[in-house]
């Protein structure tokens, strides 16, 4: 079997929290060709539980992220099951012993990939959906001189308190299943995964999405219950519970200022982002509401706020769920890249 | 010990679903005195898991619901632990065998109390928060000639699909706990109750409430985690799991047209409400968004829509959580009663 992605050896990755991920791996996929000047790079990190192939809907000929023009790198987030994760880490840091990983750690690892593997010193654009947006903001603050543009969509530079609480619900549902066994499960904690999926279902799409029955009318499910089982439970069941909890922690502790550079001064971290930024929250996103993006944009020197005009809630931004939203997003990215 | 409420013997209550609640009980509390003309009656049903004493914040001297002027009846919802419920029903209809109860069944029982116990033929106002609002709408459609006014707040006449999904998350979290044991628990399924509480926490208050740290600044909790444990888990832990699931089913299946009168024709049921109605959704309520109320009001012959201008989400409407919201609500009810 040939894999559709590559793996970069990170060596011993010392994490913010103090643990060392020995012989750590960063799985990634690239599209297009790095030109001689190495100035056609787009970096496009993954989202909560997503893997590189679930980012590909925004890449294609004639699209903003066109492999004919750009060298597009999709790095898999630590914990997502392809890069180093609870599910694939050898003992003793495997399973529930897998350490806490931050957005800072992820971006540090990605920086290593970009510079050491490809010798890239400058990036044209960093963009991403949801936790991909968090990593996008993180890039902007962590390596402010390294890119021209950032375009985070349906995400934030710091996990809001409400977003934190929403995730507490997801986590509590998953871990209420005794089969989870504090992470030492021997078989899949299916009931907890299904419960987490049902909790997520109300948050992922907007009230209007459900009111308009777009689960049936647009996505083609046969009933609301079919949508909950086939789409939502089907989405969570194949995923490893410890992986999900690792990434959930990364998300809940997302904060581009939580590092030595900014020492928790969120405004300073936002203010340090030099890239021209196009910040696109979803107009009806229930856990990344536009109000949080307004604060971010107001504190960034070169940022524009452009809410996504969609009733698809958080899923307006991915993963290619609604063709109309993809079209809109692609058009904005084209305009940004042309600027 | 003397109880602060009375109990009405409903006798054998035949439910919509076909079961008979034999020797059923309706617990209620009254305030004020029924006048000779019996025309000073206000009916004020309870909300999800709430008991009569948790409705009292809207009753008081000088308030709209003034016991000096009105005879106020607070009937406890079936399943809430005081009226007939899984937790207090004798065998064989106890625990998880407690039958499905609808809003129609509840209102039918309350009608029996009002007419048979007190000989009341006309009600001045029916009002309620949340599931109390559902029962308020239900009264308006089920006994359209019986009241002058209805004032449902932060609730709906029919459970929306999104609201249904939100409740699926609460239910899935509670029932993911193996200790729940399909309802045949011998000890409290504490982990599931705590998980349900955490799921609910993100829904109960708005993004803005959390952004403004009103859990700390207004409610006085010492941290977000303290709010999640002390307020939310503390709220759910004393409640019986089967009671919660019984009321959740009532909520999810709330629909004022789901009966012989209207045969599922929701517009017809709304159109049949003769009472002058003041419908007050919470402006930032995440599960009863104003849009659903707009549809209801547009299809009611004599209704006014007045969203509650509050960032307290669903809890703008109760249970007396924010004094400013109580003041606003009380003022609207005064104006309505004076009309």
Descriptive notes:
- 2 copies of one chain form a homodimer.
- Chain A has helices spanning 103-118, 131-142, 161-175, 190-204, 207-211, 214-217, 224-236, 241-252, 266-271, 290-298, 323-338; strands at 6-14, 20-31, 41-43, 71-75, 123-129, 147-153, 276-279, 303-305.
- The longest helix of chain A has 16 residues, at 103-118.
- The first copy, chain A, has 2 domains: 6-160 and 255-338, Rossmann fold; 163-247.
- Chain A has an 8-stranded mixed sheet with strand order 1-2-4-3-5-6-7-8, sandwiched between helices.
- Helices cover 36% and strands 15% of the residues of chain A.
- Chain A has 11 helices and 8 strands.
- With 339 residues, chain A is an alpha/beta fold.
- Chain A binds chain B through residues 160-162, 164-166, 168-169, 171-179, 191-192, 194-195, 197-203, 205-211, 213, 224, 228, 286-287, 289, 291-292, and chain B through 160-162, 164-166, 168-169, 171-179, 191-192, 194-195, 197-203, 205-211, 213, 224, 228, 286-287, 289, 291-292.
């Amino acid at each position: 079997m040939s894999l559709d992605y590559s793996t970069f050896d990170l060596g011993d990755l010392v994490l913010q929290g103090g643990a060392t991920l020995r012989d750590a791996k960063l799985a990634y996929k690239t599209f297009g060709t790095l030109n001689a000047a190495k100035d056609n790079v787009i970096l496009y990190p993954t989202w909560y539980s997503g893997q590189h192939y679930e980012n590909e809907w925004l890449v294609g000929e004639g699209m903003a992220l066109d492999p004919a023009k750009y060298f597009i790198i999709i790095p898999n987030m630590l914990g997502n099951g392809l890069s180093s994760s609870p599910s694939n880490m050898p003992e003793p840091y495997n399973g529930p012993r897998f350490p806490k990983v931050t957005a800072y750690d992820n971006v540090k690892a990605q920086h290593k990939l970009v510079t050491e593997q490809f010798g890239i010193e400058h990036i044209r654009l960093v963009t991403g959906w949801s936790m991909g947006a968090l990593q996008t903001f993180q890039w902007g603050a962590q390596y402010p001189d390294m890119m021209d543009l950032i375009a985070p969509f349906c995400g934030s530079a710091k996990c809001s308190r409400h977003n934190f609480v929403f995730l507490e619900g997801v986590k509590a549902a998953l871990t209420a299943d005794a089969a989870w066994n504090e992470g030492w499960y021997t078989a899949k904690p299916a009931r907890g995964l299904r419960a987490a999926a049902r909790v997520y279902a109300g948050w992922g799409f907007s009230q209007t999405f459900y009111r308009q029955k777009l689960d049936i009318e647009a996505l083609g499910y046969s009933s609301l219950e079919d949508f909950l089982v086939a789409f939502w439970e089907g989405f969570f069941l194949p995923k490893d519970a410890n992986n999900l909890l690792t990434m959930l922690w990364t998300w809940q502790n997302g904060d581009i200022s939580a590092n030595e550079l900014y020492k928790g001064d969120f405004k300073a971290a936002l203010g340090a982002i030099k890239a021209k930024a196009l910040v696109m929250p979803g107009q009806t996103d229930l856990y990344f509401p536009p109000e949080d993006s307004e604060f971010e944009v107001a504190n960034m020197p070169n940022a524009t706020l452009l809410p996504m005009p969609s009733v698809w809630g958080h899923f307006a931004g991915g993963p290619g769920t609604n063709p109309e939203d993809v079209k809109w997003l692609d058009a904005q990215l084209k305009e940004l890249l042309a600027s």
